[in-house]
Amino acid sequence: MAAPREITIECLNGHWVLNKDLTSEPDPILKLVRTISAISTTNPKLTIPYCLQQKVSWLLRKAFGLATIYLHISQYQTPASETTEPSTHIDFNQTGSAGLAPTEEKRILDWEIRDHQDYFFGEVKARSEFVHGAVDANGIVRPEFEFQTANANEHIKKFMRGETEVDGSKSAGFIVKDWSGIVEEGPGLWVHTFERNDKSGWTAEQIWGFEMLGDLRYFSRRGVVMTTKGQYLCGRIVFDFVSA
User: Is residue 51 predicted with pLDDT exceeding 60?
Assistant: First the structure.
C-alpha cells in the first residue's frame, strides 16, 4: 500500500512491510557485509570454525530473502532541557517470518555517534540527522549533505541524491513538495544516516525520503555499502504502508 499524504519524513509512525518487488535485490549487499564479518572475526581461539561461520551467514541471508519483513516505526520528539536541545527520535522494531529473530533500532537525529548491535550486522557505530535540499544546475531540488562514504564517486553521489537509478539511468528522484521546516535551511527534508563496523571494515550510508514509483508514493531508503577495499554496492529499500 502506498504511503498516505499525511505520512511524511517528520511523521513515519505506523506499521510497514518491506516491498520486495520494488526493493533492490538484497542478497549481494548482505553477502558483501556478512562475508566480511565472518572473515574479520576468524580467530584460531574461536570454537566456531570458519566454514561454519560462512554457513551461518548463508542461512541468515537465505532466511532474509524468504521472509516477510515487518516494521513498526515510532517517531517522537523529546523536549529541550537546560543542557540539551529538543531532539527527534525514530524507533524501529523489526520482525519477520521464516524464523528471523526480531531486531530493534533506535535513532536520534542529532548527528551524535552511538553504538548499536544486532545479530545480523554486528557492532556498529551509527549517526543520523535531518538534512535539507539545494537546487541543482537543472533547477531540481536534491538532498544536500556531506558524504561520509570514503571516496564516494559520481555514480554513488548521483544515486544517493536521486538523480539516477542503480544502473545509472535517469531517475525522477525524491518527492520534494511534501516538506516542512524552516525555509531558510533549504527546501525539502530528508534523513541522512551513516554506520560503520570497525571490526568488519564496512560502512553504510543512507538517505530516506519519499519517491513516486509507478503512480504511487512510497517511503524509500537509498543507500550504499562500501568495504575498506573500495568495493561498493548501491541499492534502494522500499516499504509499503500498512496502518497507523
Answer: no
Answer whether 219's CB lies under 8 Å from 210's CB.
yes
Angle between helices 26-40 and 50-66 (to 10 degrees): 160
For residue 226, the cross-strand partners are 203, 232
Q: Centre a 10 Å sphere on the Cβ of residue 141 and count the other Cβ atoms it contains.
A: 21
Main-chain dihedrals φ then ψ at residue 153, nearest 5 degrees: -90, 180
C-alpha cell at 65: 530473502
Q: Which amino acid is at 209?
A: G
The overall average pLDDT reported for the chain is: 85
pLDDT for residue 39 is more than 60: no
Q: pLDDT tens digits, residue range 5-27?
A: 999 999 999 999 999 999 998 77
Report how far residue 26's alpha carbon sits from residue 67's, in angstroms, rounded to the nearest whole number.
12
User: For residue 198, what pLDDT is reported?
Assistant: 87
Q: How far apart are CA 220 and CA 198, in angstroms?
A: 27
Confidence (pTM):
0.87
What's the alpha-carbon Rg for the chain, to the nearest Å? 18
For residue range 173-202, list pLDDT tens digits in order. Answer: 999 864 444 456 788 899 999 999 988 889
Residue with cell 555499502: 225
State how beta strands 87-96 and 69-78 pair.
Answer: antiparallel
Q: Give the integer Cα–Cα distance in Å for 167 and 171.
A: 10
At 127, list the grid cell: 549517526
- Cell readout for 149 is 562514504
